[in-house]
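Per reviewer request, we include the raw input and output of the structure prediction for the construct analysed in the revised manuscript.
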Amino acid sequence: MLVVALVIVGVVLFFMLRGSGENESTDNAATSQQANANSNKQTTPTAPAGMVYVPGGEFTMGRDNDPTGYESPAHKVTVKPFFMDTYEVTNEDFAKFLADTHNMYSTQIQYSRIVSHDTARQPVTGVTWNMAKAYADWAGKRLPTEAEWEYACRAGTTEDYAGNLDSMAWYDANSGNKTHPVGQKQANGFGLYDMHGNIWEWCEDVWHNSYNGAPTDGGAWLSSGVQEQVLRGGSWHSAAWHLRSARRSKYSPDVGSFMTGFRLVAVVRT
């Protein structure tokens, strides 16, 4: 009887210890998974108010067989992570900048010419590249490079547009010949609004007639070129073809237009 009792006790202890080991293993696995999840959360920086985190990556910029030659050759570019304004800079935003300059004569002139004719949430237009740069300095941000802009616009897509154009953009077919308050259309995959249409957006880069010799690190192309700056995205006045992710345009840095505005980016601090 003693032998039988000892055998029974041994069997019970075996299964108790085995169960304890399995529970410990399960607990360790769950703890490890939670730690990995927390680590992944921590690796995505929190975007400043009004901005979106754009993860870095490699993409194909431009396209081949472009009849103008402006968008070719298609080439690989590696972009570092950055933050980008969720919306285009609005009249409301720009009015704050003008008021903060303390140059009342200049402020009144600029406000009446640029801001007062539209609603507060419509994108500011008529802004020159130089004015956009001044605003960026005031805001502690900068204009996007052309590579950053296209990467952000594509949001991982490779087609002409980052989604259904009518759902995402204001352009000549649906705008009613005017700009519209920002954020009314569908955002792209990165959570950015109005990257297609509404207004053309200034970039940091100097204009070049092709991508031959263009940087591949996502930086601005500032050498040589002509004395004009890059514009991207198309506007409320543009045909659909001008709203393509790869489409490029240009304008004098000293001249504003009722079709031009901007949005800004900020550096991700690591």
